[in-house]
Write a structure and sequence with these properties.
Structural class of chain B: mainly alpha
Shape of chain B: rod-shaped
CATH architecture of the largest domain in chain B: Orthogonal Bundle
Structural class of chain A: alpha+beta
CATH class of the largest domain in chain B: Mainly Alpha
Strand order of the largest sheet of chain B: 1-2
CATH topology of the largest domain in chain B: Arc Repressor Mutant, subunit A
Strand content of chain A: 35-45%
CATH class of chain A: Alpha Beta
Helix content of chain A: 25-40%
Largest sheet of chain A: 7 strands, antiparallel
CATH superfamily of the largest domain in chain B: Winged helix-like DNA-binding domain superfamily/Winged helix DNA-binding domain
Strand order of the largest sheet of chain A: 1-7-6-5-4-3-2
Largest sheet of chain B: 2 strands, antiparallel
CATH topology of chain A: Alpha-D-Glucose-1,6-Bisphosphate, Chain A, domain 4
Strand content of chain B: 5-15%
Number of domains of chain B: 2
Number of strands of chain B: 2
Oligomer: heterodimer
Number of helices of chain B: 5
Number of domains of chain A: 1
Order of helices and strands of chain B: HHHHEEH
Largest interface: A-B, 47 and 42 residues
Distance between the termini of chain B: 53 Å
Helix content of chain B: 55-70%
């Protein structure tokens, strides 16, 4: 079946502090994640990630709220909740970065969870689909390629 | 025929909601199920089950055939596979991002503590 959690890890030949700055500093985030990034790195801090679909030039902005900051070991945020809403388990995805020292190196583990918890009442369907699709824009681009490849 | 983007939106819509995933799981478990069976085993009304089945059918994840007075629904493996692949794509995307993080962090670590013989002089002292 389809998993609810995506977990990936990688060993990086750099100290945890260096990896920490790459995943939390907006100037670094734009090198590996989004096209624009703003984030207030403290619990409850808000942020936005901007993604531009190169094929369509369509721009999508995804909101995030920082959930956990344990320098330099844990950084977690919720994202993709509707505008004006408080992110929780029912309306957002949770991203967590764990930095585990291995000698002078760092194992970075990323967990994205909550795919199963997207739940909205039927009468919010339109708003839901709208927010959902915007938030998933970046991911959908690859799904589109995949689906297009099926025909 | 719906376009690819209409199709994947339908697919996401269908699999993103947990109650619908339960309907899908239950049909998978039974190979084939009627709305009556599903409503009996799930804490949803018959009407809610019918709605979920309509969404799943529209996304092409299940198909119904009429037998006697009731429809019998089964899961379309090919479409379920597409949905699973979509999730696999999200995972692959993370592999690409993690590789990028690794590259950036390792370059910075080398800058901070240059090797006596740096392999790439161009990147030193950026």
């Amino acid at each position: 079946m389809i998993p609810d959690v995506i977990e990936r890890d990688i060993l990086i030949e750099a100290p945890v502090q260096t990896v920490w700055s790459v995943i939390t500093e907006p100037a670094q985030i734009v090198k590996w994640f989004s096209d624009t990034a703003e984030v207030d790195v403290r619990p409850g801090g808000a942020g936005t990630l901007g993604f531009t679909d190169r094929a369509t030039s369509q721009h999508a902005t995804v909101r995030l709220v920082v959930e956990m900051v344990e320098v330099p070991h844990t950084f977690a945020f919720r994202w993709d909740h509707p505008e004006g809403a408080k992110p929780d388990e029912s309306n957002s995805l949770r991203m967590e970065f764990k930095l585990i020292p291995e000698g002078a190196h760092t194992r970075l583990r990323v967990t994205e969870s909550g795919f199963e918890r997207f739940e909205r009442p039927a009468d919010e369907k339109c708003a839901y689909l709208d927010a959902h699709n915007k938030g998933w824009d970046a991911h959908l681009a690859s799904l589109r390629e995949y689906v297009a490849g099926q025909h | 025929m719906p376009s690819a983007s209409d199709e994947d939106e339908l697919l996401w819509e269908a699999i993103a909601e947990p109650s619908r995933r339960r309907v899908l799981d239950l049909i998978l478990a039974h190979s084939e199920a009627t709305p009556t069976m599903l409503a009996a085993e799930l804490p949803f009304t018959r009407q809610a089950v019918a709605k979920h089945l309509a969404v799943l059918t529209r996304a092409g994840l299940v198909e119904g055939r009429k037998q006697g007075r009731e429809m019998r629904y089964s899961v379309r493996g090919d479409r379920l596979n597409v949905a699973s692949q979509a999730m696999a794509h999200v995972a692959e995307r993370w592999d690409v991002r993690l590789q990028a993080i690794k590259r950036i962090a390792e370059a910075r670590a080398r800058e901070a503590q240059p090797d006596p013989e740096p392999p790439d002089r161009g990147s030193v002292g950026k």
